[in-house]
Amino acid sequence: MGDAAMFRNQLMDWVYDKANGTSTENVPIMEFAESVGLDLDGAYTLLWYCRDEGLLRDNGSGMGNPCGILTAYGIADVRERRRRRADPVLRARVCRSGLLNWFYRQRIAQVHMPITEEFGKDDGSLWEGVRFTDVEIQDAAEYLSAKGLIKGIEVAELRGPVRAEITTDGVDCATDWDGNVADYLRDQKGYGPTINHGPVFHGASQGGQFAWGNRDVTQQQNIDQHVAPALQPLAEAVVTILQQLPSYGLTLRDQQDIEAAANEVLAEVQQAQPEPGKLRRGAAMLKGFLFPIATEAVTEEARQLAQQGLDQVTAAIGAAL
After folding, report:
1. Using an 8 Å Cβ cutoff, are 72 and 81 in contact?
2. Is the pLDDT score of 19 beyond 80?
3. What SS3 class is residue 81?
4. Which of these, 160, 174, 208, 251, could form a disulfide with 203 (CB 3.0-4.6 Å)?
């Protein structure tokens, strides 16, 4: 599964283009599979992986001819990924974190003063199916150096150190903040969130009560479960969506559908060992609900809130998994 799953985003982009962004075309994927070195078994494995995430249907597949049909969630997934790829600010944030984590791995591997541009060959430089450019990597290195997270040798011709090593502050960011440079620096300035240990959920079942940063709410259930640090941003994003539902202008049924998907995610993040597949499917469902609101809602407020929810869920699920 691991090798085939690596091509998930590439396959989705490929099927999307072949189907012209519609959910009516049954697209054979063997041509794509062969182009990335997968055999027939690998092609089916990749197809079923995307099916289990709710991105493709495979009801048109025959023996020896794996085919995929885009779902609404799959269409939203591709469109959101392409929007993220085109966002220079988001790319800069991810590149900084990826580069810092790469320097930390070089430290652990005892590589002395690694060459910064080598990051461009690492899997960590591949984001949303596209590698960061040399300019983006140089910009990230310059930023990390200016913030004291790395230090190294600089030359006049390039931005940022051409060789560098991670500092102790950089190690703190990599190990204690999962390499999230923005959150680490915000915390150092004292601008962090008022709740530092993430959401605390009361009750482990779907439909339970959830309190997020609300000092005026009295909960009736008394079972406290802390969410793992890596999943806290996802939990926060989902809770925010639930809080903002009245502003979306939805029908009662649509609101109930989003609530059900959100509560499934919240229930899963509370498990001792959350299943990545369930979290991905839940996030895909939420994005599938939010995408048409972000693009077609009557009010500007609803569109902005839905887009914010899309951004937060996408960033959180990407960072966690």
Report:
1. no
2. yes
3. helix
4. 208
